[in-house]
Recover the amino acids of this structure.
């Protein structure tokens, strides 16, 4: 990817594209098919999906900026090790800070934070973008990809919690009247397998609307 | 950068050494400087869990502030350590330095285990014992509050390290823990009869609760943990008295 030229308004058209592209045309989950593992594991309800999305946005953005700042110093042969060390260090720092300053959030997050280290999106963006671009575009790219990931996660979490438990964010939304007519919560929706179906459906719908996404991989 | 050959072995090793040093130093300093804060959080969280196992409105504890938790804890709860024969070996449980996990896993029959007593507003006394077990992925633990008959459960509070969110991690939720209240550990003949059933298999009865759907192994883990706790405190749980 070419370096984005500086001395432009705060967010040039190219800059905006860095954030908006991953939301649809280059979505990390449905188009690049990265980070699917965590999208299966933590989306059983909406609240978890939101928390995980926020955490991943923070880590992709921070890791992109860090790697981009030292990109000219990193020896090519060990660049992946360097990227992993940076990601792991950031994740541990976030974890320590949460444990000290926001213990209730830490207790909710502890499980996900470890998962972020193994999230292919973070390393994918470091390798594909941060290694070749300046810190500011890298920051936008990190935020954009984090958002693109988050959108899918939240959508999956929404459907799984709604149909699996009849709730959203822990509140009952399907009225009891419907249950009285014989409706039951769908047990398979709370299992990780449901995310496979849902993500498959998302990819199908997205590619029927945007034909040019077909067979790009 | 022209001075260095970025692909030379010396540069690569040097770079990694500096990186490792910087990262280790940063994380070390961060961890040590935040330790007092995290330790205080852990102590408060432990007190909160002990209270949640025994007070009549456990859900309200989560919304209370630090002062309320510390005041209530200091007024209503006191702990002792006992040995395997049930004899008292310490009049207080040293908060912060007492390591239940280590006692249970490494000390065998020499272990010292805590019993807390809780006195409620009506001056009834309850006992709280500590639990530890395995879930699907990692440790699960908690507190079990028991009436002075050592049979009727007053309440439980669970915690976990890595159970799956939305499935096994549901063990901390009120819908699960509130089922334990007023259930009995032993049947009429004095045999241990308490069971955490597979989700949907529990119908009725005073010796069981319903498990978590989609989390069979965590459910079994809770069942085994309660059983192991009664076994560990067998000097106190004495069905002959029933």
């Amino acid at each position: 990817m070419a370096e984005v030229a500086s001395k432009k308004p705060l967010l040039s058209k190219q800059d905006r594209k860095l954030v908006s592209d991953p939301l649809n045309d280059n979505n990390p989950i449905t188009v690049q098919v990265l980070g699917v593992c965590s999208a299966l594991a933590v989306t059983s309800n909406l609240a978890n999906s939101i928390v995980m999305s926020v955490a991943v946005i923070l880590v992709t953005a921070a890791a992109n900026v860090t790697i981009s700042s030292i990109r000219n110093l990193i020896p090519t042969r060990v660049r992946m090790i360097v990227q992993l060390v940076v990601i792991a260090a950031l994740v541990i720092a976030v974890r320590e800070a949460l444990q000290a300053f926001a213990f209730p959030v830490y207790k909710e997050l502890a499980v996900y934070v470890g998962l972020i280290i193994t999230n292919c999106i973070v390393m994918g963006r470091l390798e594909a973008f941060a290694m070749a671009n300046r810190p500011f575009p890298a920051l936008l790219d990190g935020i954009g990809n984090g958002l693109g990931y988050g959108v899918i996660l939240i959508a999956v979490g929404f459907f799984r919690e709604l149909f699996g438990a009849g709730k959203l964010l822990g509140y009952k939304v399907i009225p009891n009247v419907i249950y009285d007519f014989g409706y039951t919560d769908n047990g398979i929706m709370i299992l990780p397998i449901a995310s496979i179906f849902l993500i498959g459906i998302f990819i199908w719908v997205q590619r029927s609307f945007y034909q040019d996404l077909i067979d790009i991989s | 950068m022209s001075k260095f050959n970025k692909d030379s072995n010396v540069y690569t090793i040097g770079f990694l050494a500096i990186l490792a040093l910087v990262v280790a130093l940063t994380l070390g300093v961060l961890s040590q400087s935040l330790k007092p804060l995290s330790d205080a959080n852990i102590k408060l969280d432990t007190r909160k869990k002990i209270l949640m196992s025994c007070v009549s409105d456990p859900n309200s504890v989560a919304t209370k502030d630090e002062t309320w938790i510390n005041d209530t804890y200091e007024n209503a709860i006191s702990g002792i350590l006992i040995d395997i024969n049930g004899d008292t070996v310490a009049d207080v449980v040293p908060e912060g330095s007492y390591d239940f996990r280590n006692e249970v896993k490494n000390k065998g029959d020499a272990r010292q285990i805590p019993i807390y007593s809780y006195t409620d507003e009506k001056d009834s006394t309850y006992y709280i014992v500590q639990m530890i077990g395995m879930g699907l992925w990692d440790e699960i633990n908690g507190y079990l509050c028991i009436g002075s008959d050592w049979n009727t459960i007053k309440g439980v509070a669970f915690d976990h390290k890595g159970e799956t969110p939305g499935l096994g991690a549901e063990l901390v939720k009120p819908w699960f823990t509130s089922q334990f209240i007023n259930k009995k550990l032993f049947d009429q003949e004095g045999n241990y009869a308490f069971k955490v059933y597979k989700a949907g298999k529990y119908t009725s009865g005073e010796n069981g609760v319903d498990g978590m759907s989609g989390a069979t192994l965590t459910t079994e883990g809770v069942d085994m943990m309660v059983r192991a706790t009664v076994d560990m405190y067998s000097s106190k749980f004495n069905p002959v008295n029933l």
In short: The mean pLDDT of chain B is 89. The helical segments of chain B are 9-54, 58-61, 66-76, 100-106, 174-177, 216-232. The longest helix of chain B spans residues 9-54.
